[in-house]
Amino acid sequence: MARGQPEAFMIHIIGGGLAGCEAAWQAASLGVRVVLHEMRPVRATAVHKTDQLAELVCSNSLRGDKLDNAVGLLKEEMRRLGSLVMRMADAHRVPAGAALAVDRELFSRAMTEAVQSHPLLTVTREEVPRIPDDPAMYPLIIATGPLTSETLSADIAAHVGADHLYFYDAISPIVLAETIDMAKVFRASRWGRSLSSPESRVPSPEDGDYLNCPMTKDDYDRFYDAVISAESATVHDFDKEKFFEGCLPIEVMAHRGRETLRFGPMKPVGLIDPRTGRTAYAAVQLRQDTLAGDHFSLVGFQTQLKWGEQARVLKLVPGLENAEFVRFGMVHRNTYINGPTVLRETWQTKFRDDLFFAGQISGVEGYVESAASGLIAGRNAAALVRGEEPRVPPRTTAIGALAYYVSHADPRNYQPTNITFGIMEPPPNIRKRADRKLATSTRALEDLDRWNSSASFSTTSA
Ligand SMILES: Cc1cc2nc3c(=O)[nH]c(=O)nc-3n(C[C@H](O)[C@H](O)[C@H](O)COP(=O)(O)OP(=O)(O)OC[C@H]3O[C@@H](n4cnc5c(N)ncnc54)[C@H](O)[C@@H]3O)c2cc1C
């Protein structure tokens, strides 16, 4: 037995993704042994490509990393709570302007090594096909993600009933860097914000973390007409219209109106072409996807168009005429429970104290949010075996607001959410929006530090 802990100090976690690994790390940091059950490579999912833990299945971006942005605040809170995901993401970041993007391979390899080498963590490679009956498996965290295996999904559905829902997301294509026509694109981060020159607002040709494909009105109209008439892959009838609003396929956006893309993923604002000193009519942004810089993904270009159609339509983007696609966009299933019906703010289920859900399946959306829910679920499952009360950070924090949303939103129209300032109460009497955001972040971090230092348990480092 590692570190002389009693056998009773043990929890089980199903799913070695972002949420499951973070939960395991947090519990182990509290001196609790963890058995982490991960089905890959014994059983594959439709989307994961490797046998690594915490694989990033789509974009390599963990989104904004500044405190004027809610996901930036959530990241900073997680860092202060000893998050493994944040430690490894910071260690393996690649240039991405004001966002935190990582080299996906190095990131998940580092996560796997950290988890597998922790003396209190055991990883077993097996599918758990149903919610276990064996009392020795509890406390239990289910963190099996949007692609939870079929048999376990069916069993979860049997436990939570009609509240177990499905919908579809779509993912962005990736192009080979050497096939991009560099003469037609320019480097810049929106508003000139770059890792290399964070304060610069005057981009030079070498500056900026994104490649931008500028479009004239004619280019845009041609592209729009092609998207509108392109053929999509089939989505099952019962899943139609269930896309997550924050991750709409480009063709779904395009069908909402000619200008929708130009005010969405193709917005040109803040992108000044250093060659002309002007802003284009529309722009497509490409973000570096690997540290080596050999792959770029199309930012916000998730799509369910047929692959042949994607190749045809995307080659109308200036700079991509001869692009080679490393991966096409696609549609995927997303499994999640109706959080407000099933969960408490502690990520425990309402029907069983020692059963938790965490990650995308718990009804949050996004890599960082999934890891954040795992962080609290892991701490609380560990608290239970230690005979302590599960705790939740204050609602004034991003991580606390997320827990509150998932457990208290309207269950009739429940939609998984990214963290936004919209689900956090702003401090009173601040009129300017930008000031309100920063004040919300400042208060959140103060409240989080106070909450964390008042914990009855103390964490140990591995
Ligand atoms: C195709 C796709 C693209 C996405 N793109 C993005 C994106 O670009 N940005 C973003 O922020 N979020 C994205 N998401 C949403 C979400 O953030 C990710 O899915 C994230 O990985 C969720 O983390 P998780 O830990 O909940 O699940 P996962 O990371 O999927 O981990 C769950 C793990 O559980 C395992 N598992 C499943 N069933 C069983 C079982 N019965 N027994 C044992 N193990 C099991 C799986 O193999 C997997 O390793 C995407 C989701 C999908 C499906």
Q: What distance lies between the first and last C-alpha atoms, to the nearest angstrom?
A: 16 Å
Instruction: Find the structural class using helix and strand composition.
Output: alpha+beta
User: How much of the residues is beta strand, in percent?
Assistant: 15-25%
Rg is: 22 Å
Mean pLDDT: 88
The distinct ligands, each listed once, are: flavin-adenine dinucleotide
Biggest sheet descriptor: 6 strands, antiparallel
Can you count the helices?
12
**So what's the overall shape?**
globular
Helix content: 25-40%
Q: Helix-strand pattern, N to C?
A: EHEEHHEEHEEHEEEEHHEEEEHEEHEHHH
Low-confidence stretches: 195-206, 236-241, 458-462
Q: Summary?
A:
The chain has 462 residues and is of the alpha+beta class. It has twelve helices and 18 strands.
